[in-house]
UniProtKB/TrEMBL annotation, chain A:
Gene coding for it: ssuC
Domain of life: Bacteria
GO BP, sorted A to Z: transmembrane transport
Membrane-topology descriptor: Multi-pass membrane protein
Domain named ABC transmembrane type-1: residues: 60-240
Protein name, per record: Nitrate ABC transporter permease
CDD domains: TM_PBP2 (cd06261)
Automatic annotation (TrEMBL), chain B:
Protein name: ABC transporter
PANTHER family documented for this protein: ALIPHATIC SULFONATES IMPORT ATP-BINDING PROTEIN SSUB, TAURINE IMPORT ATP-BINDING PROTEIN-RELATED
Sample GO molecular function, one term: ATP hydrolysis activity
Lineage summary: Bacteria, Bacillati, Actinomycetota, Actinomycetes, Streptosporangiales
Pfam families, alphabetized: ABC_tran
Gene3D superfamilies reported in the protein's UniProt record: P-loop containing nucleotide triphosphate hydrolases
Length: 258, 260
């Protein structure tokens, strides 16, 4: 256990030390040493009475609420719509080109539209994130629901399964490997869109912090924001993979012997 | 029990690749009978089974199960498909697979679990309930599919080449399993196979279908003495005679003797 952790992570401290040494030696204000970034993070966010400072709550709170809430909304909407479309063969044929087009639009391209529509605040972030990440979820849900094995649906028909069981015990599980492939894309995309939309259309959040620090040329604060975003991205991805592994255990097992 | 009258099914009628799968098929199965249907491959056996199960609507003719015209799957009918690896749900444990169809019956959770356990016992898989299908061998998976059908307590069980995907030894075990469970459960069984020996060994009666468009070309009663046994039954002169008879009918060679 400890050996594998050491084996996997030994390069991280090495890089940190090398970075510290190099930036201290160079003394370039645009590249502050990691220790300086860390102390800035501490005094900005983690020196409060209960660990977190007011600024930390201000910076992280809105961002987290937006990204998690928007992702949740996009999942419910995308999977729900996708499964409905996927199980309605004639409809899916018409919808397909639209979905393909929606997916092809680079997600940040819609930000100016939402800035005009909503000006500032959480609506801008929610709209940008949901519109940006729903396509891979939708596309994969359609695909997964459409390609449920006929023998599985026939079996459900023969045994007279009621509609809700058919949906929740047969269609959704059968489509879940595909659905999860779409969700995986959406997780990292959601974080990207959160930052982008906060840079422009927000008065709080991590993206807003970055944009303020950038206009003040406050390099340690910018880097602090970057580090937090990296940690956040890593945490989201790890949580997602954990959930995926639990839900899709059967899938890896079934494929292992196939 | 099961009455099929003048059944006809045409795929893509009117189109250039129109395929007449079944034409004017007439068949009747008595209560409690184990009927085997054999025919050359691609003759429309599966079309016939899917029509009885209400999975497709035949283009002509009538099917009645216990006097009721089949429009959708009758509630007292279960199917065991050939491809167990696709008809069992890989995301559910073995016990959940067996218990799921019972949601339709008026049973609470505990009753469903007990019924599933009982069915698994009757196919010799009492310890496998918590496993997942992929953790079992092919023969065991098909036993689970049979257990699922048994737990459902159908009065008519359809089996579509149920042993087509397992090895020879397992196949013999499963044949004997079907003979065993039919004794315990009062039900009619229609078993479709392309294996001539199997049809004679398992069946009370063997119906032979022609090449597509399928109709009945032979209907033989199997009167073999005593409980069937993989060794002694298969060397019995009546067995040898019957399998030759069925073989000739399947190949379309005129029969030498008729027995009805």
């Amino acid at each position: 256990m400890i050996r594998t952790i050491v084996k996997r992570l030994w390069l991280v401290p090495v890089v940190l030390v090398a970075w510290e040494l190099a930036t201290t030696a160079a003394a370039n204000p645009f590249f502050p040493p990691p220790m300086l970034i860390a102390s800035r993070m501490y005094e900005m966010w983690f020196s409060g009475p209960f660990l977190l400072t007011e600024e930390a709550v201000d910076n992280f709170g809105p961002s987290l609420v937006r990204v998690v809430g928007s992702w949740g909304a996009a999942v419910v909407l995308g999977v729900g719509l996708g499964v409905a479309l996927g199980r309605t063969a004639w409809l899916a044929d018409y919808i397909d080109p639209l979905v393909e087009f929606g997916r092809a639009v680079p997600p940040p391209a819609m930000l100016p539209v939402f800035l005009v529509l909503f000006q500032m605040g959480t609506q801008v972030q929610v709209a940008t994130i949901v519109f940006g990440i729903i396509w891979p979820i939708l596309l994969n849900s359609i695909d997964g629901a459409r390609n449920v094995d006929h023998l599985q649906t026939d079996t459900a028909t023969v045994f007279g399964l009621p509609r809700h069981l058919r949906l929740f015990r047969i269609i959704l599980p059968a489509a879940s490997p595909k659905i999860f492939a779409g969700l995986r894309l959406s997780v990292s995309l959601a974080l990207i869109l959160m930052v982008i939309s906060e840079l422009k259309g927000s008065t709080d959040g991590i993206g807003y912090l970055l944009s303020v620090a950038s206009s003040n040329a406050d390099m340690p604060a910018i880097w602090a924001g970057v580090v937090v975003l990296g940690v956040l991205g890593y945490a989201f991805n790890s949580l997602f993979l954990l959930a995926e592994r639990r839900v899709l255990t059967w899938h890896r097992g079934a494929r292992g012997t196939a | 029990m099961l009455e099929i009258d003048n059944l006809t099914h045409v795929y893509g009628p009117g189109s250039p690749n129109e395929h007449r799968a079944i034409e004017g098929l007439k068949l009747s199965v008595a209560e409690g009978e184990l009927l085997c249907i054999v025919g050359p491959s691609g003759c429309g056996k599966s079309t016939l089974l899917r029509s009885i199960a209400g999975l497709i609507t035949p283009t002509g003719g009538e099917i009645r199960v216990e006097g009721e015209l089949v429009r959708q799957t009758p509630g007292n009918l279960a199917v065991v498909f050939q491809d167990y690896s696709r008809s069992l749900f890989p995301w559910m444990s073995v016990a959940d697979n067996v218990a799921l169809p019972l949601r339709r019956r008026n049973m609470d959770k505990r009753q469903r679990r007990e019924a599933a356990q009982e069915a698994l016992e009757s196919v010799g898989l009492e310890g496998a309930g918590r496993k997942y299908p992929f953790q079992l061998s092919g023969g065991m998976q098909q036993r689970v599919a049979i257990a699922r059908a048994l737990a459902y307590r159908p009065s008519l069980m359809l089996m579509d080449e149920p042993f087509g995907s397992v090895d020879a030894q397992t196949r013999e075990d499963l044949e004997d399993l079907v003979l065993k469970v039919r004794g315990h459960h009062q039900m009619t069984i229609v078993l479709i196979t392309h294996d001539i020996d199997e049809s004679v060994y398992v069946g009370d009666r063997v119906v032979v279908l022609s090449k597509a468009p399928a109709h009945v070309v032979g209907d033989l009663r199997v009167d073999l003495p005593g409980p069937r046994d993989q060794i002694t039954t298969r060397e019995h002169p009546d067995f040898v005679h019957l399998r030759a008879e069925v073989g000739r009918l399947v190949r379309g060679v005129p029969a030498q003797a008729t027995s009805a």
